[in-house]
Amino acid sequence: MFQDPILFQLHHGGETGDLEFWCQLAEEFEGPVLELGCGTGRLMKPLARAGRTIVGLDINLPALTYLKNSLAGSSIESCNVFQTRIDQFHLSRKFSLIFLACNTLSTLPRISRKNTYLKVFDHLDSDGVFAASFPNPSYMRSLPAEGDSEVEETLIHPLNGNPIQVSSEWHRKSKSIIFDWHYDLLLPDGQVIRQTVSTEHSLAGVEDYLVELYAAGLEPFHIFGDYQRSELDKSSPFVILLAKKAA
Fold it and tell me: Domain 5-137+204-245 is in which class?
């Protein structure tokens, strides 16, 4: 289910915990950048402001419309965005860095992951790098089978000024874990309008991702457990893979 871009930007637009990591990575591998699943541009816009030439892809048209509107009249000229599936795109250029952030990789079905890797291979410079992040499956397996819903924060809707209470819960299945984000718009007359966004993450082991990358001609050369580039272990919150074309 696609999330309302206004709600997404309100809830996630100010997150910066991974921003420095992606900006540093773009500096290390100078050249054009491709972001898969760029959404409302939380990462695209800072990278463009830093001087990177960047292209963004996303299937979510409302998110891309929001992004384009936010760029209108700005000084950012190096952003180009296209609506397409990240496992089916074809562009006429190659990139020094292709990245898939925001925990998206583990939400893709296995066949979509494989096709995405093949597209990455086709669009990556010979010395370019592919990077992707997703929640650590070992850590997610250690969570209780269910997480009870509770209010985490209250936001103010930018258009109508009404409060929005944000809560989340999860339940784990044998091969995946589903997170439900609830957005409760509190109206002055006491009514509550709820929007729920559900995201299902695969619990496939890291080794499964490595096998898939190798099969697509991509060779992993770094695996981090957080955005400070710590070594991955079972308690790490994330898995961040860096891969290049196999020799």
Answer: alpha beta
